[in-house]
Amino acid sequence: MRSKQNEMTKTKETFQYAFIQTLPVLFGYVFMGIAFGILLQKAGYHFIWAFFISLIIYAGSMQFVLIGLLGGGMGFLSLIILTLSVQSRHIFYGLSFIEKFKAMGKWGWYMIFSLTDETYSLLCGMNIPKELNEKQVFFTVAALDQSYWVIGCTLGGIIGSFIGFDTTGIDFAMTALFVVIFIEQWYSYKSHLPALVGIVCGVVALLIFGAGAFILPALMGSVGLLLIFKNNIKIGEEQEACQ
Fold it and tell me: What subcellular compartments does it reside in (predicted)?
């Protein structure tokens, strides 16, 4: 009986911790999800479509692209290539979590599916208390983030069937969300080298490749440089921790 109570207490603590960590994503995802649901409804699709698309596809920016593709007659191969080009950055996101996701067993498959930009940022930036199980925290964070998105998309589909308004500029919510997460991680980590590497690679790639094609080169450059300076980052963090 006592062990069951302890397990329930741990589950509650895990949920509370994960919920607090995902609050920035909650506001960003619900707002952007509503935008997607409204646009999908305006394209002539019932809110049930918004629910199942966000539940099964769960691809963020690709879902917005999907609105324009529905009924557009694009070939299956072309659709695959487009999806890979839009979502290819996720290949790099998963590199640092391969071993951890493998250790999660069946949960690992869901973690791979649910690894969005914002969830990745949270998993990288969390300092999980020792008394909590890391695997359970990871899974709870990922599940909460997707639930926010599903709720937002579904609400948007429902709202869009009753209310019409101009959605210009609504996509800025995701930019604001990234800024909030970046600032939080900047203050949470003692070493700012990874963040600086990302900024430099992003700016250089933007100048060279332009706004439409800079993400993938920036990620490749960031991953390469971080692998090179991996030991330096670890040594710097260990030295600061001892001071």
Answer: Cell membrane
Contact between 206 and 50 under an 8 Å Cβ cutoff? The reply is no
* 117-151 confidence digits (pLDDT tens): 889 888 988 888 888 999 999 999 999 999 999 99
Q: How far from each other are the two terminal CA atoms of the chain, in whole angstroms?
A: 44
The answer to whether 62 and 88 have CB atoms below 8 angstroms apart is: no
Helix (H, G, I), strand (E, B) or coil at 117: helix
Phi/psi-derived region of residue 210, left when phi > 0, alpha when psi is between -120 and 50, beta in every other case = left
> Could you write out the DSSP letters of every residue in 153-205?
HHHHHHHHTT-----TTTTHHHHHHHHHHHHHHHHH-S--HHHHHHHHHHHHH
State the DSSP code for 213: S
Q: What is the pTM of this model?
A: 0.70
Give the distance, in angstroms, between the CA of residue 163 and the centroid of all CA atoms in the same chain: 29
What digits encode the pLDDT tens for the residues 195-225? 788 888 889 988 998 876 777 788 778 778 8
Beta-carbon contacts of 131 under 8 Å, excluding residues fewer than 6 positions away, are 10, 13
Domain ranges of the chain: 2-188, 190-243
